[in-house]
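Worked Example 4.2. Consider the chain below.
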Amino acid sequence: MAKETKGNDGVGSSDQIVLETRNLGITFGGLKAAQNVNIKIKKNQIYGLIGPNGAGKTTIFNLLTGVYKPTSGTFYLNGEDLTGYSQEKINHKGIARTFQNIRLFNNMTVVRNVMVGLHNQPEFKCNELVSILRLPRHFKVEKAMRQRAKDLLKIFDLEDERNNLACNLPYGKQRKLEIARALATNPKLLLLDEPAAGMNPNETEDLVKTIKYIRDNFDMTILLIEHDMKFVAGLCDEITVLNFGTVLAEGDTKTALNNPEVIKAYIGG
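Applying the procedure from the previous section yields the following structure tokens:
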């Protein structure tokens, strides 16, 4: 059961801190998948979470989105403790994500995929009776949702694809659609899990521009996982490097990437 809203406990005294984790961790049996992870992300930052395979990056995303419940530590969004909340409530509070393996509703149209993300917004609420009886409110909400979805698709140059099935989009456009759907939930913090994976250089360059556009035009704070170090270096303001579930390095992207321990973790001794 989701917890009731908590006080901010003095967390995020600076208005600039959007996400803070304190000694966040989880243990599966005897395996410490993540431990003592401390991250602070400021408003409008593009922040990277990197590390070798198995370092615990996606585990942290799963903790931040309620897929896993932490066995230690806490995390805060704009000063509010969301530790232990359900996936739905965390999303409602303002954290949205994409996945390493694209998860779309393949047999639904592009526009319908985005409309799914709008259902948690108060202005698009419609009770079951109104929908079943097809009362005027139902059609009004449906029209408004479709227009909002089309507006989001324009940003990603997907408006012309809106009536196509999601499964028929090329890979790069499927990635964009997943981000558009996440944005539809109106998040304060957007988590991107390897957004550039599988993209060609032109698609990756376009994605960099898109992420910066989202940051600047949606007043968005972004946390991303990525293995492409060129992508990270050209996009992220700061990074945290994980290895074996613990923080290996953190701070300014260029400095952290040149840390000898980080280089050793990636390419060996």
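Confidence is low (pLDDT under 50) at residues 1-14. The beta strands are 17-28, 31-42, 46-50, 72-77, 80-81, 95-97, 189-193, 221-225, 238-243, 246-252. Compare this with Example 4.1 before moving on.
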